[in-house]
Amino acid sequence: CDSLDKANSLIASRSTPICLPNYVAGELRLPSSPSTTFIDSFAPKTGSLLCRLPCAQQDDVEEAISYARAAFQTWSKTTRAERSRHLRRISELLQEHRELFAVWESIDQGKTLERARIEVDRAISNFSYFSTYILHEQTAARVVDGVALTYEHRSPAGVFALISPWNMPLYLLTWKIAPCIAFGCTAVAKPSEITSMSAYLLGVLLQKAGLPAGVVNIVLGDGPTTGAALVASPLIDGVSFTGGTPTGIAIRRATAHQIRKHMSLELGGKNPNLIFADAMAPATRERTIRIAASAAFENQGEICLCGSRIYVERAAYAEFVREFTEYVAKNYTLRKTVGAVASRQHYNKIRGYLQLAADEKATFNLGAVPPLLDRDGSQGYWIAPTILTDVAPGSLLQQDEIFGPVVTISPFEDEEDAVRLANASEYGLAAVLLTNDGARMRRVGEQIEAGLVWVNCWLVRELGTPFGGMKNSGTGREGGEYSRDVFTVVRTLHLPA
Ligand code: NAD
User: Can you give the residue ranges of the Aldehyde dehydrogenase domain (predicted)?
Assistant: First the structure.
């Protein structure tokens, strides 16, 4: 029986919800610590208990780190060709089991099955991309004034803590694991306690793929216990973290005295979407509305790159609000194209913001304040796409990251006003610019304080381009050579000519 098929039937067994094991030293096992507590994890579409997971304690985390350190001794010395073969094998196995991963990701996270499939495909690309990247890596060498030859020598930076959030669980975890092991590092990874299912399945798959024991370890648990123990350990050489800005700040604080630790922080966003009147010309109107809608509501708005603050040039404002609302009402329907939000806690957070919108007398063009969940939450965590206008100036609705299917629309007067509004945020992750004016694309695009600016498109990704945010959206970049900077140390050698 295939190990993944066996995992599938264990999860699917209705009589007792599975207790997910950690993946440590190549084995799937529950933690040995007597003080281990367990966390219940629910299926967002039904509100029912899906599985339980152990909350790894300090000693469990230390044990996983010790295996990762031992594995680093040999893994860091393997050839690129050998590491490449392992990554390729993992991507092939993921491809083979694509549907199984997609189905459980969709059940565990709440996203639609179609969306889950896209993300599994991207997880496959994470491994296949880095499996070839390391084979074609180049090293810079220079001749200095004819007297010396200098070159950069890179070596794996050590053992990494890889911590990921609940919105795109498998995709974001593999976005860290793939480059980490490709560049010769080893890892202790921790998925979100809200969505650990695909990390469990990945552990089963890594075992099946024959990845040497200890190269990747996956510990399950919450942030304050498991995550905090992991990042603070002096035996961890680097942290690659994706999650909320408050957690990024906590991690910075906890590691402030460990200057040597490599740190990549991919944090929250409150991304602007600027729509100029020319983008509503007949030839591009449909495209403009389609891009704005998908940037707002893809994955229930639970993508850090979602454009949740729409600003429209006043000349096209009324027309845009009307057509955008019609389009979203027709194309973004709960259960079909919009999934459930990830957890009860997140439902309540989004509900709180929608109550605030009602209290502040914003106009609900679409959607409403969702009902309070009943005690067992058994109806699932469903929030319909919500479009707000007439938002009070300075409202938290346009400052805080709501991270749900909620968008605000406001008018702007001219380019200067558009740039001012776009940049009026503590965040600087991404932005969308919709215009047909070529000069404006660059003029405005280059003034926006965001790590990623998409012009007349959204979510287009090439895995070699730098990914990351400005301001409170994070530090460091990941992707291609930028991931290499995270996971390697560089020394420059000077040789006499
Ligand atoms: P979160 O910060 O609450 O949790 C993220 C991860 O950190 C989880 O695994 C959690 O258990 C862990 N964690 C929590 N406290 C910790 C601590 N003190 N030490 C170590 N680990 C700790 O974020 P979330 O609610 O899971 O995810 C949503 C957030 O993630 C949003 O802000 C979103 O914008 C952000 N995000 C950013 C990107 C990006 O690439 N910039 C991508 C996806 C999501």
Answer: 36-492
Here the ipTM equals: 0.98
Residues facing residue 151 across a β-bridge: 141, 493
pLDDT exceeds 80 at position 147? no
Q: Which of 126, 162, 163 to mutate to test the pocket of ligand 1 (most atoms within 8 A of CB)?
A: 163
DSSP character at residue 278: G
Do 401 and 353 touch, CB atoms closer than 8 A?
Answer: no
- C-alpha 110/C-alpha 130 separation (Å) is 29
Cβ–Cβ < 8 Å for 150, 101: no
Query: What single letter denotes the amino acid at residue 168?
Result: M
Q: Are strands 474-475 and 22-24 parallel, antiparallel or unpaired?
A: unpaired
Q: Do the bridges between strand 488-496 and strand 148-156 make them parallel or antiparallel, or are there none, so unpaired?
A: antiparallel
* 404 CA distance to ligand 1 middle (Å): 15
**CB-CB contact of 4 with 204 (8 Å):** yes
Q: What is the pLDDT of residues 436-470, one digit of tens each?
A: 999 999 999 999 999 999 999 999 999 999 999 99
Beta bridge partners of 263: 239
- How far apart CA 177 and CA 123 sit, in angstroms, is 10
Please identify every residue annotated as catalytic: 266
Rounded CA separation 389/394 (Å): 13
Closest to 187 in 3D by CA, of 215, 164, 210: 215
d(CA 74, CA 68): 10
Whole-number Å distance between alpha carbons of 169 and 102:
11
Alpha-carbon distances of 148 from 42, 145, 216, 490, 491, rounded to whole Å: 62, 7, 40, 18, 16
Phi, psi of 222 (to 5 degrees): -90, 180
